[in-house]
Design goal:
Aspartate Aminotransferase, domain 1; disordered N terminus
């Protein structure tokens, strides 16, 4: 039996160790090893772009996460030669499938692209005419079943293919929703509420011989999630490559049933006419995603988890030297962004500033420090300080800047 303690111990991944600022303030460091950065052209300054210290979570608008050193090495070492993209996608897919213990896999331009390609695969199969006509196929629109509580902004990727979404609540409604036009059933893993369990969802879809797809884009750590959903029986699975796996931000993983992955490839670049042509993945990203996944699976996840806890404790210790300030380590239950952060609160009679005002002040700095504000019951709020995306030398810097703002607000 997996205890809560054991589960939390395994909710782990490598820390993302920061953006490569061109300010000269920072040195580049890899897992605690600091190396002075060579003087290079400062494109942040040249373009007037403010560098960001991400004391939050992996968000696309904040450029996801930072690529691992192994990924940069893969990109740089393969940028000097051409490759046949069909062959490269096949070989990379085979290696990824081997690592993930599935029939087949491919690299996509993010998890949203994987949703487009996976849906398209269930609509067109290997039919060339359908691939050319999608999303404007003649006749009734293809249908994709989703739980009503699982509707979310990214399900537009499904309707991009011309399919329409059929909402259901509970197993009985799902059973009745299948028609001759049903091509797929989609499960949004990070939904706050499910009226149908993972296992029920897969079982019902299989009974109607319709592929099931799970979107688990941001749902590592824990690393075990990469293997969990194919064991349950989902036919297609997607994870973002540019979040905690730390591959290229514009890369993603789609894996599962071989026939569906092969059909998804036919709907993708480098083929010239299909719906996925605008969503191409370059060769460096293919090599980079392979290197990222390999490095992620080889990590000492327990050690990295402990490092995150130590970071939260270091920041808390510095902030609690201010009277009335308290910090607590919070572990998100997931499934998305399931890692530690530090929640900071204070007596606003003594420290006359709100968490939102601290958030705004940090964000306005250069480099900008992006945190989060967490709402509590009763209308109060806390400052949420993420630790997993910080470079090692940024931990104390973030603590110092938060402390400075709070000290100035002391009565």
């Amino acid at each position: 039996m997996i205890t809560r303690r054991k589960l939390l111990r395994h909710l782990s991944a490598t820390p993302v160790i920061g953006s490569l600022f061109g300010t000269g303030i920072w040195s580049s460091s890899v897992f605690g090893r600091s190396v002075e950065k060579a003087k290079t052209r400062d494109l942040f300054e040249e373009l007037g772009v403010t560098p960001v210290i991400n004391a939050g979570v992996t968000m696309t608008f904040l450029s996801g996460s930072l690529m691992r050193p192994e990924v940069m090495e893969a990109i740089n070492s393969t940028s000097h030669d051409f490759a046949n993209m069909h062959e490269l996608q096949d070989r990379v897919g085979e290696k990824i499938a081997e690592m993930l213990k599935v029939e087949a896999a491919m690299v996509t331009s993010g998890a949203a692209c994987a949703m487009v390609l996976g849906t398209a695969a269930t609509i067109t199969g290997t039919d060339e005419e359908k691939r050319l006509l999608i999303p404007n196929l003649p006749g009734p629109r293809p249908e994709v079943i989703m739980q009503k509580s699982h509707r979310y902004v990214f399900d537009q990727a499904i309707t991009t293919t011309g399919a329409r979404i059929v909402e259901v609540e509970g197993p009985e409604e799902m059973e009745k929703a299948f028609t001759e036009n049903t091509v797929m059933a989609l499960f949004f893993n990070a939904a706050g509420r499910s009226s149908i369990s993972h296992e029920q969802f897969v079982e019902i879809a299989k009974r109607h011989q319709v592929p099931s797809f799970i979107d688990a884009a941001a749902d590592v750590p824990p690393v075990e999630n990469l293997f969990k959903y194919q064991k349950i029986g989902f036919d297609l699975i997607t994870f973002s490559g540019g979040k905690m796996i730390r591959g290229p931000q514009s890369a993603g993983l789609l894996y599962g049933r071989k026939d569906l992955i092969e059909a998804a490839k036919l709907n993708h670049s480098p083929y010239e006419a299909p719906i996925g042509r605008p969503m191409k993945v370059n060769k460096e990203e293919l090599f980079g995603m392979y290197a990222a996944l390999k490095a992620y699976l080889e990590l000492d996840h327990d050690a990295e988890w402990q490092e995150w806890l130590d970071r939260a404790d270091r920041i808390r210790t510095q902030l609690e030297t201010i009277a009335g300030v308290q910090g607590e380590t919070h572990i998100s239950p997931g499934p998305a962004n399931a890692f530690p952060s530090l929640l900071v609160s204070w007596d606003q009679e003594k420290v006359k500033i709100t968490p939102r005002e601290v958030y705004d002040a940090l964000k306005a700095e250069n480099p900008s420090i992006v945190t989060n504000v967490r709402r509590m019951e009763g209308g109060q709020s806390q400052l949420s300080v993420g630790v997993v995306l910080l470079r090692p030398e940024q931990v104390d810097y973030v603590a110092k800047r938060i402390k400075s703002i709070l000290v100035k607000a002391e009565s």
